[in-house]
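Re: the 220-residue chain
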Amino acid sequence: MLRPRNHRDTTSDIQLTRAHTISGTVRDNLEKPLRGVRVRAYQDGNLTASALTDTDGTYDFDLPAGAYEMEALPAAGSTLAPAVARNIVIGEPRTLDFTLIASAGILSVKLNFPRQEVYSRFSSKSLVRFELFQAGAAVFAGNGVSGPAGSDPATGRFYRTYNLYLREGSYTLSAFVAGCRPIHVSGLEISGESSVTLDLPEPYLWTGVLRAPIIRRWHT
C-alpha cells in the first residue's frame, strides 16, 4: 500500500453518551389527563429537551445522565398554574408525573398602545406573548387569556388586557409584541388578583413574526 510522504496514522476516540428515557403523565387535581402541556428539562440553565403531552396526558423524551430541573407549562388559555420539579437525577429510565392545580394568583396585564393605528394592527392575540420567570426558571410562556379592550376615557389611550394564571410569588415579566422592543418588569408580587400596566413603545417594524418560544433561563 502506497502512502504519501510524511503520512502518519491518527486515531481519535468518540465519546458516546448513553441517554435514558424519562416519561410521565400530566393531570389536573381531578386526575384528568391534560393534553398540550409543554414539559421541559433544563440542565445548568440550558434547555435540554422538550415535549408536548399527548391526548392521554403522557410525554417522554431521552436525557443523558445528570441532574435536571423539569417544568410543566399549561397550554395557552389555561387557568392552571405551572409546575416545577427541581434536582431530578437521571441515571436510568424513570417516571415523573405532574399535577397542575388551579392557580392561586391572577396577573392582569394592561397593555397600553401608543395610538389607535398601532392598537388596530398589533393587539391581535397571536402577536402578543408573555414570559414569566421565578427564581431563574421560566414558569410561563404564552398569550394569556384576553380580557377587556378599547379606549380608556381617562387617558384616551387604546389598550387590551390579558390575564395570566400563576402560583403566588415573586416574578419577572417579559412582554413581547411583534415589531416592538420587549418590555421587562422585575419584582412583581402575585397574590390573589394583581395587575400591572405596560406602555408599549412605538413599533420599529410594521411587519414581522413573534419570536420563538423561550429556550433559555432568565438570570437575575
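The mean pLDDT is 83.
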